[in-house]
């Protein structure tokens, strides 16, 4: 296998996460099961950090990609901040001891309560997505008698060529403010009380495979900073978002953070700004797998279905974005390959992990590893079909830690209640 599936490797045909046999984890904890390599998370974070040595930098880990508390703690322990998009994410980040001075808050619909909590925590920056939102932040900050540090999120109108659902930097998306009206928006915000207008922000998509698109967007931001400074705005931070790519398939390309830094650094240094990056997938994507067991094989005239116990509620990326996740047996038992649909038990035709995919033949009872599932895997999991969400395991060398237990049926109904009248016979 030639993948950058950090932390996971085959030894004599058996999959290991660091020094732990994945088959043992599957047998011990049951499936479906998410497994993360602590070392991979840290290594990926450090690759970015090292690439930018000498540039003042805050790496705000995009916790939407994987927000388990232990993951957040592991990141914070090595100096990462957090890119948050909700009050819930703020709550998690603070619980995990993330330094509030490294937290940035994005999202097009922040509520007054969320703004208030973030101000109380003393976060580094609000990434403001509209002038209307700046009004709301100003109002809440004034009430508290504090200044809110803000960046306006700019839509630089570059085509990052990502899936339509994850394209954010082109005209016509709901995110940010178009570049051609940015100055106007900054001027309007200048008139509002209790705002410290100190930054510009852009995030152009996820994942972005074109380094040229990044460079073009950054040039536009740097020009904007020059123009804003000429108008006496005190711009000190440049938040350039996330979107760094990973390899899901062998035939993809993904540039290294060193190449990215080589393009980004000179432009940022010219501004003298502190750089903020918001990588999620680059850190978490290949640092985790989803393990699932073959429940049945179903061979029809048209095709073979491999029915597994993991489903779209556990990993929705194939169904939602046509996401490709490499699938391979946890123990390689046969050289035979076959083209199959790998499907889950959820009652939807859209419930598949792979379609028309050639994989190594796997029999009933065998375990399969679904790779590159560390980002937007568990984080997007749901209880659809009343399926309890999976456990999450963190492997550190030869040690394993259950960092989230499997949900129980009781967990599924927590908070629900049946009004008394519904127990009465409606015919009486
Ligand atoms: N910053 C902002 C403002 C974002 O909107 C995002 C992702 C990131 C940073 C982190 O992007 P990353 O470094 O992880 O590419 N669920 C989709 C991806 C949605 C991305 C949303 N925003 C998927 O599974 O592909």
List its traits.
alpha/beta, Lyase, Ornithine Decarboxylase, Chain A, domain 1, TIM Barrel, nine-stranded mixed sheet, eight-stranded parallel barrel, 21 strands, 28% helix
Question: What can you tell me about this protein's structure?
Answer:
- The chain has 428 residues and is an alpha/beta fold.
- The chain folds into two domains: 8-37 and 285-412, Lyase, Ornithine Decarboxylase, Chain A, domain 1 (Beta Barrel); 107-277, Alanine racemase (TIM Barrel, Alpha-Beta Barrel).
- 28% of the residues lie in helices and 25% in strands.
- It contains twelve helices and 21 strands.
- It has helices at 22-29, 38-51, 69-77, 87-95, 112-121, 131-144, 182-190, 211-230, 257-271, 281-284, 317-321, 409-412, and strands at residues 8-11, 14-17, 20-21, 33-37, 57-62, 81-84, 103-105, 125-128, 148-155, 177-178, 195-201, 237-239, 274-277, 288-299, 304-308, 327-329, 337-343, 352-360, 367-370, 392-396, 399-404.
- The strands form three sheets. Strands 4, 14, 15, 16, 17, 18, 19, 20 and 21 form a nine-stranded mixed beta sheet that branches.
- α5 (112-121) crosses α6 (131-144).
- The longest helix is centred in the middle third of the chain and has 20 residues, at 211-230.
- 46% of the residues are buried.
- The mean pLDDT is 95.
- The structure holds ligand LLP.
- Ligand LLP binds at residues 62, 65, 83, 106, 166, 168, 203, 206-207, 241-244, 278-282, 317, 321, 375-376.
Write the layout of secondary structure elements.
Elements: E1 8-11, E2 14-17, E3 20-21, H1 22-29, E4 33-37, H2 38-51, E5 57-62, H3 69-77, E6 81-84, H4 87-95, E7 103-105, H5 112-121, E8 125-128, H6 131-144, E9 148-155, E10 177-178, H7 182-190, E11 195-201, H8 211-230, E12 237-239, H9 257-271, E13 274-277, H10 281-284, E14 288-299, E15 304-308, H11 317-321, E16 327-329, E17 337-343, E18 352-360, E19 367-370, E20 392-396, E21 399-404, H12 409-412
Parallel strand pairs: 4-20, 5-6, 5-13, 6-7, 7-8, 8-9, 9-10, 9-11, 11-12, 12-13, 15-17
Antiparallel strand pairs: 1-2, 2-3, 4-14, 14-15, 14-19, 16-19, 17-18, 20-21
Helix pairs in contact: 2-9, 5-6, 8-9
Residues 62, 65, 83, 106, 166, 168, 203, 206-207, 241-244, 278-282, 317, 321, 375-376 line the site of ligand LLP.
């Amino acid at each position: 296998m030639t993948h950058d599936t950090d932390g996971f490797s085959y030894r004599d045909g058996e999959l290991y996460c660091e020094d732990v046999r994945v088959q043992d984890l599957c047998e011990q904890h049951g499936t479906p099961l998410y497994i993360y390599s602590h070392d991979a998370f840290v290594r990926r974070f450090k690759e970015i950090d090292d690439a930018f040595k000498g540039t003042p930098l805050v790496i705000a880990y995009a916790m939407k990609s994987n927000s388990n508390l232990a993951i957040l703690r592991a990141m914070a322990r090595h100096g990462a901040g957090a890119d948050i998009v909700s009050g819930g994410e703020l709550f998690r980040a603070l619980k995990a001891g993330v330094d509030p001075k490294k937290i940035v808050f994005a999202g097009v619909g922040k509520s007054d309560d969320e703004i208030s909590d973030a101000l109380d925590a003393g976060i580094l920056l609000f990434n403001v997505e509209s002038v209307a939102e700046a009004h709301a932040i100003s109002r809440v900050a004034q009430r508290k008698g504090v200044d809110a540090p803000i960046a306006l999120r700019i839509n630089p109108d570059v085509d990052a060529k990502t899936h339509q659902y994850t394209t954010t930097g082109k005209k016509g998306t709901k995110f940010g403010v178009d570049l051609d009206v940015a100055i106007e928006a900054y001027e309007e915000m200048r008139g509002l009380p209790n705002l410290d207008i100190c930054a510009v922000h852009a995030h152009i998509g996820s994942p972005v495979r074109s380094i040229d698109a990044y460079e073009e967007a950054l040039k536009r931001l740097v020009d904007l900073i020059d123009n804003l400074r000429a108008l006496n705005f005190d711009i000190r931070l440049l938040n350039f978002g996330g979107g760094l790519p990973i390899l899901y398939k062998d035939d993809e390309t993904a540039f290294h953070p060193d190449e990215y830094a080589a393009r980004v650094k000179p432009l940022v240094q010219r501004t003298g700004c502190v750089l903020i990056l918001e990588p999620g997938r680059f850190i978490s994507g290949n640092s985790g797998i989803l393990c699932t067991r073959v429940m049945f094989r179903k061979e029809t005239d048209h095709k073979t279905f491999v029915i597994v116990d993991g489903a779209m509620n556990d990993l929705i990326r194939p169904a939602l974005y046509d996401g490709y996740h490499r699938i391979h047996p946890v123990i390689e038992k046969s050289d035979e390959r076959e083209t199959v649909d790998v499907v889950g038990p959820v009652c939807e035709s859209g419930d598949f992990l792979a379609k028309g995919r050639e994989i190594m033949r796997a029999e009933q009872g065998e375990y399969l590893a679904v790779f590159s599932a560390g980002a937007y895997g568990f984080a997007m999991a749901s209880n659809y079909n009343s399926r309890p969400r999976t456990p999450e395991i963190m492997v550190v060398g030869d040690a394993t830690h259950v960092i989230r237990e499997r949900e129980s049926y009781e967990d599924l109904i927590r908070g629900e209640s049946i009004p008394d009248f519904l127990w009465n016979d409606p015919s009486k």
